[in-house]
Design goal:
There is one protein chain. 17% of the residues lie in helices and 26% in strands. By secondary structure, the protein is of the alpha+beta class. It has a domain of 124 residues. The termini are far apart.
């Protein structure tokens, strides 16, 4: 602003409450080889979300892009013999590729056992039951405040976009700049992901 209006507002706020709050986002990243359980420590006054992404061990090696499940493959028509592209649901009537670095895939050691997911935050289970893959997808989409991708199929989620987002803050608190997340002012959060 070209005037001193902002300075006056800041001075009034300091005079009323004695301080000026400046909330900001802080991001922490932990990499580990996941073998049923992974651990991390977080120390925050307002922990909003936890993102967990599962990638193949070779995600940093160079290689051809990965075809996204459910999309057309090069040279394949969606209708047999028509020579052109027709139909398709969720905008899948085209080719789509992502790099190995961003491809997140569900890896299962036993194909007969369904994957389940649960957090341990300072010895408390979140949620109180072991989530299935469909529960994890629904939870992740609900944690994104309007940024969700409703056109994602379960097959695409499992093979190309396998990540979960746990929300610890109130809905739409990001837009209102509220500190409503999981508080932890005295000791680091012990986070354990069981998958």
């Amino acid at each position: 602003m070209a005037s001193s209006v902002l300075d006056e507002i800041a001075n009034q706020r300091i005079a009323q409450v004695g301080y000026l709050s400046l909330p900001f986002k802080n991001y922490f990243t932990y990499n580990s080889t996941h073998d049923q359980t992974s651990r991390a420590n977080v120390n925050s006054a307002s922990w909003d979300r936890l993102w967990v992404a599962y990638r193949d061990k070779s995600y940093t090696t160079q290689g051809a892009p990965v075809s996204v499940k459910g999309y057309k493959k090069k040279g394949v028509s969606s209708a047999e013999g028509d020579g052109g592209a027709v139909g398709g649901v969720f905008d899948t009537n085209r080719e789509k590729y992502i790099s190995k670095y961003f491809n997140m895939e569900e890896k299962v050691s036993d194909t007969d056992v369904d994957s389940t997911f649960q957090l341990q935050v300072n010895s408390a289970s979140v949620p109180s039951y072991k989530m299935t893959v469909t529960d994890a997808l629904a939870m992740t989409q609900n944690a994104l405040d309007g940024r969700r991708n409703n056109n994602l199929t379960l097959d695409q989620y499992r093979n190309n976009y396998f990540a979960q987002c746990w929300r610890f803050c109130l809905p739409e608190s990001d837009f209102n700049r509220m500190a409503s997340g999981l508080p932890n002012k005295f000791s680091p959060q012990q986070v354990q992901v069981d998958a």
